[in-house]
Amino acid sequence: MPQNPHPLPAARALSRRSLFRATAATAVTAAALGAGAAFAGTASAADPEGIPVSPYFDITKPSSDLFRSKMLHESHHVMQGFAFDNVNRRLFIVQAQNGTSGDDLCINQVSFSGELLGSMHVAHAGHGVSIGVEPVGTASYIWMECDADGTTTDARGTALARFKFVDGGTPSVKKFLTGSKTITCATDPVYQRIAVRRSEGGQMWYSVYPLASAAAGDFTKPLVHFPQPALSTTSVVFQGYTILGSSLYTLDGSGHADAADIDSCVTRIDMNTGTVQDRDITRAGSTLVYREPEGMAVYRTADGETRLFLGFGSRSSLDNINRYANIFYKNVLVG
Fold first, then answer.
1. Which of 81, 126, 132, 245 qualifies as a cystine partner to 295, CB 3.0-4.6 A?
2. pTM of the model
C-alpha cells in the first residue's frame, strides 16, 4: 500500500522558535492555573524550547490485536478515548453512560484482555475523545475534559479534570485551564508529558507540558505549541490522538456498515515543526461489524516494547444496540 494514500498539501517547515513567535501575538496559551482558576488571555509563556528528537512509530506496519469484541460497563455506547497507567499496568477506557443525555461519561478499568475490572462515573464531562493517566504511587489519576458546554453527545469540555480513579467512587476533581473550548488531553507514559488539544481562535492547537508541571498547576512553559495541520486534502472525522517523544499521532475516520469501506487513517506529526510526516490507512480490525475508529494511546510493556494503540468500536450486528471495544497496536519504532 502506498505510504501516503491521501496526498497532503506541502507544509512549510518552521523552526521551533519561529513557529511560536509567528503565532504568539494571537495564540491563546495557558497562564499559571490552579484548580478552578480562570483562563487567561493572550500568550505570556516563554518561547518553547521544543522536544528532543525521539524514535517514532512506523505507522505503515501492520497492527496486532490486544483484544476484540469486549463489552464495557455501558453496554449501549461505543468506546471513546483510552490510556494506560504504565507503572501500575492498568488500562482505562472512557465512554458515554447509558440512559443519559450524552455528556455524562464512564471511566472503565479493564484488563489487558479486555475484561471489566471497575468503573467510575463523571457527570457533565463532555465527549471523551481522548484521556490521560498519571500514576502516583499505587494510584492512577485520570486526566480528562470536564464542565461540558452542553448536555448532548455534541457537548465538549471547557476545562481539564484530574482525579484519582476509585472503582464505584465519586471523583474528587481538580480543574485546570477552565474557560477553554473543546479541550482534551493525552499523556506520554514513556517521557512523562501531557498534550493538551483545544480550540484557540477558531482553530485546534496542541500544547505539550511536563506531566509533573501540569499536575502542579503550572501551564506557563509549553515545550511546544502549534496548530493542528491539515490531515487530508478533504475533511476528516477526528477520532483521537496521543504522543510519544517528539511525535504526535492522530486517528481519523468514520464507521461503515460495509467492512470493505475503510477510510480510517493514522497520521504522524513532528511536534517541533507542527508538520505532517506520515499518513497511512489502517486496516486494523477490518473485519469488524460497523468498525469505527475510537482513541489512541501509548504503552511500554514490562519487557520494554513500546506500542502505539488504536481503538475501534464495533457491533455484533447492524441492528444490535450493544457496542463492543476493540484495541490493536503497532510496535515498530524507527530511530
1. 81
2. 0.87
